[in-house]
Design goal:
The chain is mainly α and 71 residues long.
């Protein structure tokens, strides 16, 4: 089980690096199902949420508007 969890952890990292967010999320969740509390999977999911939020803000233009404001 530990080897399979590690395989999912590495697969998630590869998927994340390629921008395959949902696939990465699935692999990290599978890793956690096999090895509850895996710190790398927990960290990866947190990093993924931040990346998805960042992209969402960029696509909606909110980040651009916020950074473009002059006070």
């Amino acid at each position: 089980k530990e080897d399979l969890a590690l395989a999912h952890q590495y697969l998630a990292q590869i998927r994340f690096a390629r921008g395959l967010w949902e696939d990465a999320r699935s692999s990290w969740k599978r890793c956690l199902a096999l090895e509850a509390g895996n710190p790398e999977a927990i960290r990866g999911l947190r990093m993924l949420e931040q990346q998805v939020e960042k992209e969402s803000m960029q696509k909606s233009g909110l980040l651009g508007r916020f950074l473009g404001k002059k006070t």
